[in-house]
Design goal:
It contains 32 helices and 10 strands. The chain is an alpha/beta fold. The protein has a 6-stranded mixed beta sheet with strand order 2-3-1-4-5-7, sandwiched between helices. It is elongated. Bound molecules: guanosine-5'-diphosphate and magnesium ion.
């Protein structure tokens, strides 16, 4: 067996290629930062290539300098782990910029194959690449592939096997530079010391690379002397920049001419026209909101398209409490699954246990404790799957990148830079990869800020909470006026608004420091691939079911115990209705004890109100647990009317807000701890989450309770909360007026590039200029600088 590494720019298609070769189910996303970890898998083809290949997918990088963890990981892997072959994956639609990395990879002593990906796209455009000539210039094999379509992969693999066991010495890829001489001198010094990949080390030494300089201080000193001499002789300075310029010059004069663009009509492409609307300064956010609202309503509403409200007769006669209209797909699937699991299956288990003569508490533990809670959670699986499909469609079609761009423009005004937005948007799926994605953020200030904002971008596991409350409480309380889809939409909007406000205040008054420049690409619009979407759905389903079957099952057993046992460790006696008397249980005494603390939030008003607060805190285990706990307390749906809890619509939204903003699940908390890597920052973030959720919910309740004026639910608490809120708003407004201009609303620019190239010779120099920002764009038609 031998080892092959895939390296290349972010979004060059490494992971897609990796998946195509290994058949493994790695997530395929658009964001730089998703592939921060090392990913490994095997290629096997029994008949033609009996020996399997061990393939490693390295993180996406723009160069081999030591500035980001990705760059360090990649170069250390190639230098130290000595893969037998490196496949350098290039994005054909951005060939110039991608070749910059190639010039550095080729300096290492390792066999290299260049895989030019996205062949399908340039082929469709009518562009061609002279791979024979390119291969001759680079001195290594060049293969055209399309990782997505699967073309050229056999050829690539054949080349890999052909190179197996061969050796290759690094080559310098900026031939006519006047630095070349010095690089070779230093390289000879390195070679004398038996340093592996002397040419690469030499060019890094001349670039004043911090890692290599520390590693080989003596040679570094000699290199410096040589450099000084050269600088004196040629009257030049700044070797890192010189080398970078030489590389670019070499690429555009020697390598890029191998790219032959086809003839193209000089009009705005369809994609440009779409971008003009979708990323429009005024329309961008309303369009996004509209897409979300319509999507949620179609998928998650009790009353599909409000047809019942408009007078369609109910098609749900078989329901216990018939609702108007027909259910949307998500609700229909959820109800069906709920019936199968909770009514049919649990009924079967219950009668089986009774027939077998099991103790009644065993039957209760299994049926009412564990099964009821776990099934309550699992019944949300169809909704999670549909949400995943929805987000995947937005992501894979290329629209999410536009959303990031649109939000950048908005959030930048509040001091949150574009670099933070990409990981934040991926938190809509799950906060864990979102938090890990913050590794690409270099500025510690922005990293802390971004991590602190992650819960506000509601993850998929919070959807069940929104939907349970939305369809079973808010929908009922509002007489059908606010449906589940609307509730979910409102909560996603609340999250974004809180993120903006919290970001603004943290920026201005808590976390201070510098922001860093940011560069980002627009992927081309594409018809989403069924395969990528279904893989993502499968992955989510697997994660969800595993959590339900393990953590949630165990935790539900624990909650059942705390609910059915008193402090005397005896089963609690039954109440007048023959149900266990919850008020004597352990959990109720804890709940009742902390209940007063949460009165201002408005959702713990009645005697049983503590159940909500307990439910919210059990969500730290996993957010799905909130629904499981509510189920076992019987405070959802029909149970609400009889529970004497006195929840109102504002109270329900306050509860949802608390769940949205408070501590995320334990997996996300521990990821945040690892990424923050500082006790002080970690404590700050925890405190931030707790206080924001408290303040945020109180605020939502105070505002919402205005709608209660004139009803029996409007009392002293509401008046006090509204007055306090008003006072707080006035105080903040005055404070802001006095402290104007505290926030530096990031002067740096976000640069967005299309994959589309109209004039490649231009872009060869232009767009690759500085992958870390400050690049200027000369072509305005397909470049959205602002
Ligand atoms: P990585 O960052 O290098 O791992 O890139 P990914 O594998 O995540 O790919 C980035 C995007 O490019 C994904 O949306 C892929 O579906 C898409 N993609 C990758 N290879 C191809 C290809 O050959 N043709 C087309 N049209 N799209 C591709
Ligand atoms: Mg990747």
């Amino acid at each position: 067996m031998f080892k092959v590494a895939l390296c290349g720019n972010p979004n060059s298609g490494k992971t897609t290629l990796f998946n195509a070769l290994t058949g493994s189910q790695a997530h395929v996303g658009n964001w730089p930062g998703v592939t921060v970890e090392k990913r490994e898998g095997f290629y096997r083809h029994k008949r033609d290539f009996p020996e399997p290949i061990d393939i490693v997918d390295l993180p996406g990088i723009y160069s081999l300098s030591p500035y980001t963890p990705e760059e360090i990981v990649s170069r250390n892997f190639i230098l130290n782990d000595q893969p037998d072959v490196v496949i350098n994956v290039l994005d054909a639609t951005n060939l110039g910029r991608n070749l910059f990395l190639t010039t550095q990879v080729l300096e290492m002593n390792v066999p290299v194959i260049i895989a030019i990906n996205f062949f399908d796209i340039i082929h469709k455009r009518g562009d061609t690449i002279d791979i024979d000539q390119l291969s001759k210039k680079l001195g290594v094999p060049v293969v055209l592939v399309s990782a997505l379509k699967g073309t050229g992969l056999r050829d690539l693999i054949a080349q890999v096997y052909a190179l197996k066991g061969t050796k290759r010495d690094g080559t310098l890829q900026f031939h006519d530079s006047n630095l070349q001489e010095t690089v070779f001198q230093v390289s000879n010094l390195c070679a004398k010391e038996d340093i592996p990949s002397p040419l690469f080390i030499a060019s890094k030494l001349i670039e004043q690379d911090a890692i290599v300089t520390n590693q080989y201080p003596e040679i570094a000193a000699k290199a410096n002397t040589l450099l000084k001499a050269r600088e004196l002789a040629t009257n030049t300075k700044d070797s890192e920049e010189t080398i970078a310029n030489d590389r670019y010059a070499y690429i555009s004069s020697e390598l890029y001419p191998c790219y032959h663009p086809g003839v193209r009509p000089p009009k705005l492409s369809a994609s440009d026209r779409a971008d003009k609307i979708l990323t429009n300064r005024w329309l961008g956010i309303p369009i996004f909101a509209l897409i979300m609202a319509i999507g949620f309503s179609i998928v998650f509403d009790n009353d599909f398209l409000h047809m019942g409200a408009m007078g369609l007769p109910s098609l749900r006669a078989f329901y216990e409490t018939p609702l108007p209209g027909i259910p949307s797909l998500g609700i229909f699937l959820q109800d069906s699954l709920d019936w199968i699991l909770n009514t049919w299956f649990t009924g079967l288990v219950r009668s089986g246990l009774m027939a077998a003569g099991a103790y009644s508490w065993v039957t209760s533990l299994i049926c009412d404790g564990i099964l009821a809670s776990v099934f309550a959670v699992i019944s949300f699986l169809p909704l999670i799957m549909l949400l995943t499909v929805f987000i995947q469609l937005l992501e894979n079609s290329g629209y999410m990148a536009r959303v990031a761009f649109v939000f950048d423009r908005l959030l930048r005004k509040f001091g949150i830079s574009g670099r933070c937005i990409v990981p934040l948007i991926s938190c809509f799926g799950c906060a864990v990869p979102g938090i890990m994605g913050t590794r690409t953020i270099e500025s510690p200030r922005e990293k802390v800020l971004t991590i602190s904002l992650t819960p506000f971008f509601a993850c998929g596991a919070k959807l069940p909470i929104f939907m349970a409350i939305g369809t079973q409480i808010v929908y009922v309380l509002s007489g059908g006026a606010i449906d589940g889809g609307m509730t979910a939409f409102i909560m996603y909007a609340v999250g974004i608004i809180v993120a903006i406000l919290a970001g603004y205040f943290s920026n201005a008054y808590v976390i201070q420091g510098e922001s860093s420049p940011f560069i980002m690409e627009f992927p081309p619009y594409m018809v989403p691939r069924a395969k990528a979407t279904s893989l993502a759905v499968l992955e989510e389903t697997k994660k969800f079911l595993i959590r339900a079957g393990t953590i949630i099952a165990i935790m539900s057993g624990v909650i059942w115990f705390l609910q059915n046992f008193g402090w005397n460790w005896q089963l609690v006696p039954n109440d007048v209705n023959g149900n266990p008397d919850l008020s004597q249980s352990i959990i109720s005494s804890i709940g009742v004890f902390i209940q007063p603390l949460f009165y201002p939030l408005g959702f713990v008003k009645g005697v049983g109100g503590w159940k909500y607060i307990v439910a919210a805190f059990t969500g730290i285990v996993a957010k799905e647990q909130v629904v499981a706990t509510m189920e076992s307390f019987g405070i959802l749906g029909a149970g609400l009317a009889t529970s004497g809890i006195g929840l109102t619509i504002p109270g329900a939204f306050s509860f949802l807000t608390f769940n949205l903003l408070t501590l995320p699940c334990i997996a996300a908390i521990s990821t945040a701890k690892a990424e923050l890597n500082s006790k002080r920052n970690f404590r700050y973030v925890l405190l931030f989450w707790l206080s924001i959720s408290y303040i945020g919910s109180a605020f939502v309740y105070a505002i919402g309770s205005l709608s209660l004026i004139g009803t029996a639910s409007y009392g002293i608490l509401e008046i006090v909360m509204e007055s306090l809120t008003l006072a707080a708003v006035v105080a903040i407004a005055i404070f802001l007026l006095v402290n104007r201009k505290r926030v530096k609303t990031g002067k740096e620019k976000i640069h967005l590039f299309h994959f589309d190239v109209e004039d490649p010779s231009q872009t060869a120099v232009n767009r690759l200029l500085n992958p870390l920002g400050s690049a200027s764009c000369s072509r305005n038609s397909s470049c959205n600088c602002h």
